[in-house]
Amino acid sequence: MARLQLHATTVLLGDRGVLIAGDSGAGKSTLALTLVRRFGLSGRFAALVSDDRSDIEICDGRLLASAPEPLAGLVEVHGLGPRSVECERRAVVDLLVRLVEPGLAPRYQEGDCETVAGCAVPCLALPRRQAEQACSVVLSWLGVAPF
């Protein structure tokens, strides 16, 4: 199995894996924690898989994300540093969220896909450092938001 490492954070929301990519300081960890909290408030299972770096494998034509061993079970809390959290070992990636400069994020998402390691993955380009707004879009895409 081919393996690569991405500068990305992964969460598992129910049975859906969300890979969050963006530059340092884009808000990957903040969005991940916001998604886990808000999804969990709906009474559903939610957990972090990896923070800041995600190992990616291709399995049966799908992306499988996990944490690199030294980072497993850790999340960076801005201003405090790494903290231990309970994590899932891996998740099949169902959605890629790319955190971009606000001016580059489309006002309306068109259902775009991005190819990662030869696999087409649905992709949302969302404004960086706007976790609450991005969380609402992701949860809506997953069919969880109240609208």
Give an overview of the whole structure.
The chain is of the alpha+beta class. The chain has one domain: 3-Layer(aba) Sandwich (Rossmann fold). It has two helices and eleven strands, in the order E-E-E-H-E-E-E-E-E-E-E-E-H. The protein has helices spanning 28-41, 131-141; strands spanning 3-6, 8-13, 16-21, 46-50, 54-59, 62-66, 74-77, 81-84, 90-100, 113-116, 119-127. The strands form two sheets. Strands 1, 2, 3, 4, 5, 6, 9, 10 and 11 form a nine-stranded mixed β-sheet that branches. A hairpin with a 3-residue loop joins strand 7 and strand 8 (81-84). Helix 1 (28-41) packs across helix 2 (131-141). The longest helix has 14 residues, at 28-41.
| Order of helical and strand elements | EEEHEEEEEEEEH
Question: Nearest-angstrom radius of gyration?
Answer: 14 Å
> What's the rounded overall pLDDT mean?
94
Major sheet attributes:
9 strands, mixed
Number of domains: 1
Identify the CATH homologous superfamily: P-loop containing nucleotide triphosphate hydrolases
Q: Which CATH architecture is right?
A: 3-Layer(aba) Sandwich
CATH class: Alpha Beta
What is the count of β-strands?
11
